[in-house]
Structure formats: structure tokens, C-alpha cells
Sequence to fold (127 residues):
Amino acid sequence: MNKLFLAAALAVVSIPAAATAQAPKAAPTIGDYVEAMRSTVGMVFEGGIQILAVDAEDNTLVITVTGPDGWRADATPQQVSDALVTGFCETSPEFFRSSHITMRVDSIDMKAKTKGPVVTDCPSGGA
Fold:
């Protein structure tokens, strides 16, 4: 997998904390997480990896990433997802357990969009 993608993953590790801070008296909603991450849309990280969109589908936080042609060539959708979700889990290991929100990382390479798996807990080794 393109190791430069990890730079993008690490750049969003504080997002769960930001969403929690926005709603201190109640559990953050999917809307809180989407709003907290909107500032990352359009950011280009080392290696040309970019967060293209942050949306919600029901109770699933959907992050779409893209990069230069071929960036995802040797990575499975699971590996792309794990790289990003692990960043969340390192900062907020309780993210999935306390929020009951799921996450999906979609990726675009050479104009082909691939949906990632729906994640309900931290990847192995992520928390």
C-alpha cells in the first residue's frame, strides 16, 4: 500500500475529539462528526492524497479519498479503510463503542470509485 496514504490518515486523528467538544452535554451525532471533518475536505497531503468528501449515509460516516493515478493499485479497500480508521482509533479508541456510528472509507483511483467496508470497530492493532 502507498505509505504516503498514512500521512493523510494521521492528519485526521483529532476529529473525534473535535466532534465531542462540539456537543459536550450529549453524545455526538453523525452530523457533529461530519461537521467537524468538513474542514479537511480538499486538503492535499504528502503524496497527493486528498480528502474529497465527508458525508453521512444513515448512521455511517463516509470519507472519500483520492490521489494521483495508481495510488491505490496495490491496496485493497480493507487496507485503505484500515489506514484511515486506525488514526481515529489511536486518538479515540471508544469512538465506535460510544458513538454507535459506523464508518466507511471510499477511494477513487484513476476515476474508479471503490466503496470500502462498513467499519463497526477499530481494526486489529488500532486500539
The domain at 5-119 is CATH 3.30.300.250 (GMP Synthetase; Chain A, domain 3). The chain has five helices and five strands.
